[in-house]
Structure formats: structure tokens, C-alpha cells
């Protein structure tokens, strides 16, 4: 038995508002003119019996499919405003706290809006049903990219998740799989993602990308770091540069060690030791 929110009307409320309007126009034209015209040329008894009543019911079906349009428009406006508000808070606070304040649905919505602002065609469903490993479908310049969002505040995304996402990417013949988390990745997950078209974005990197207005696809120009200790076995999941051991010189973590991308400031990926 289908759930209440699995019907086409419910899906139209989350689709672009113009899609509802387009369907309503097509349905009205089909019921009022096209189908009666076809019935006149048909020998089908049932079709001929129903056809004269189609123009009478056309307004009702048209209204039914037009009804989701203002709701969809309001939802899209609300998502855009929420995105702008959260981005503004990120730029002010310069940390992941605005992301942590979001619900999982709001986090997925935020990531979807981010890609829209980057010029991607975004398709996403906010259903609680199993998504098959794909939260957002992206298309740009003929390429398909998939996104999986993990709104984890304390847990780290492990290697098992990446293995599953890699299989999903291959099954869908996508150019890449982007895994975005508000938290962080384990070292095993980072190592697994190397050279597998898996783009890993943790909360800290996402904050820097919002601050800088950078695109997920922009690979930084690798510059030679100065006075840093290179760690050969750890690689930045965002640009594939080497991670280096650094010491925090300011903020609440002053004096603590952390790994940072060797191509800083072009890439600002960081993770805990």
C-alpha cells in the first residue's frame, strides 16, 4: 500500500513550480481538445462514450495539478532564503555550528541549494524512504554527479559508507560521487577515496568553500608549503594533495595538532589527528 506522500501531487510540491503549471496546461488541452478530437475518428465504443464528458472534467483535473504550483513556489523560496541565511551565519561564525543547527532535511536542502548557485541542475527528494545511496542528482555540461549527505555532528563517516557509495556511483554510471558531511571522515575512509572519483567534503572544508565561494569542482593549484611536516600516507580528499601536520595558533584549539592540506590557502581542508 502506497504511503500518503508517494502520490504525484505530493511530488509536484517538491518539484519546480513551473512543472505543475506545465502539466496542468497539457492536461486541460488534452481533455478539452485532443482526446475528443481523437474519439471522433475512433471506432472504439467506450472511447466514444467517454469523450464527450472529458471537457466537463477538464477544469477539475487542471485545478488538481495546478494546486501544487504555489506550494512548490513557496517551498523553493523558503529553501533559498534558508540557504542565504545559513551561508551568512557560516561566514560570520566561521565554523560548522550553523550546519549543526540544521535538521537532516534542512542540511540536504542546503547542499542542494549550494549546487544550484554553482550552476547545476539539481534533482533531489526529501522523502524519508530509502534513497539508494543518492540524496541529490546533479547534471552539468552533460555529466552526471551524485551526492550523498551525512548530517553527522559527532560520528565520523567510515570506510564502509564509501564502499557503498562507490558501488552506487558505478551502478549509475556517474562521473563522480560527492559525499558531504557536517562532521568528518575517518582516516581509513580518506585513504579509500583516493583515485576513486569519490569527492569527500567534511564540515570544515564546506565552511571554507562557502566563505570563499568556491565550486566543488575547482581543483586548487598546488603551491609548495613552507615550514610544514609532510605526512606521506595521508591525502587530501578534496584535491588529492598531501596532508601536513600543523599546530593551531589561535582559536579554541590553540596548541593542538591537526592535519591540513599542503596546498593551503587554495584548499583549506582540515581534519583531526
Automatic annotation (TrEMBL):
Domain of life: Bacteria
Keyword RNA-binding: no
Key word Transferase present: no
Chain ranges of the DNA topoisomerase type IA zn finger domain: 234-271
Keywords in alphabetical order: Membrane, Transmembrane, Transmembrane helix
The name this protein goes by in its record: DUF2034 domain-containing protein
Pfam families: Mrr_cat, Zn_ribbon_Top1
Restriction endonuclease type IV Mrr domain: residues covered: 100-210
Transmembrane segments: 12-34, 54-74
InterPro entries (alphabetical): Restrct_endonuc-II-like, Restrct_endonuc_IV_Mrr, Topo_IA_Znf, tRNA_endonuc-like_dom_sf, Type_IV_Methyl-Rstrct_Enzyme
